[in-house]
Write a structure and sequence with these properties.
CATH architecture: Sandwich
Order of helices and strands: EHEEEEEEEEEE
CATH superfamily: YhcH/YjgK/YiaL
Largest sheet: 6 strands, antiparallel
Number of helices: 1
Radius of gyration: 14 Å
Shape: globular
Strand content: 35-45%
CATH class: Mainly Beta
Strand order of the largest sheet: 1-9-5-11-3-2
Structural class: mainly beta
CATH topology: Jelly Rolls
Number of strands: 11
Distance between the termini: 16 Å
Number of domains: 1
Length: 143
C-alpha cells in the first residue's frame, strides 16, 4: 500500500504502469458511475459510508488507485496472504469475508492510497462524526 497526496501521484509513475493516465482523470468532467477505458476501469462515487464489516476485496491483476476529492473516509487493509489461492469473481476481484485489520487510514480531501495487485482493502468505512459522503475516484489499472 502506498499512501500520499494526489499532488505527488506522478512520482510513482515510473514503478506503476498507466499511473499517468489515472492522474489525467482528475481533469475530466465529473459523472458518477463506472466506465472502462483502455488499460483502466474508473469509478466516480459519492456513496454513503458503511459500518466496517471485516469484508475486504482485492483486484487480482490490477493496481487500485483510490483518491478522495472531498470529505473524508476510513480505509483498511488486511494481510496479502489471505488473498492467495482464492479465485477471482467475474470482475477480477478476490473477496475475503472475515479478515483482521492490518492497517487503517483516514483519508481526507487530496489524499490517495494505492493498493498493489491482490492486496486486500476495504474502502468507505463510516466513522463517528462523518458529516457527508466523500467524493472519491477509484481507478483499477491493468498490469
Amino acid at each position: 500500500m502506498i499512501y500520499d497526496t494526489i499532488d505527488h501521484i506522478h512520482e510513482y509513475a515510473p514503478v506503476i504502469d498507466h499511473l499517468d493516465s489515472a492522474g489525467e482523470q482528475l481533469h475530466t468532467p465529473w459523472v458518477v458511475g463506472t466506465q472502462a477505458l483502455e488499460g483502466m476501469h474508473i469509478r466516480r462515487s459519492e456513496d454513503e459510508l458503511t459500518p466496517f464489516s471485516h469484508r475486504f476485496k482485492a483486484s487480482k491483476d490490477s493496481v487500485t488507485v483510490h483518491m478522495v476529492l472531498s470529505g473524508s473516509e476510513l480505509v483498511a487493509t488486511t494481510y496479502h496472504e489471505l488473498s492467495k489461492g482464492k479465485k477471482p469473481d467475474g470482475n477480477g476481484h478476490i473477496h475475503i469475508e472475515d479478515g483482521p485489520v492490518a492497517a487503517a487510514l483516514t483519508l481526507r480531501k487530496g489524499d490517495v492510497v494505492i493498493f498493489m495487485p491482490s492486496e486486500p482493502y476495504c474502502l468507505g468505512i463510516e466513522t463517528a462524526g462523518t458529516a457527508s459522503p466523500p467524493r472519491t475516484l477509484t481507478i483499477e489499472l491493468d498490469t
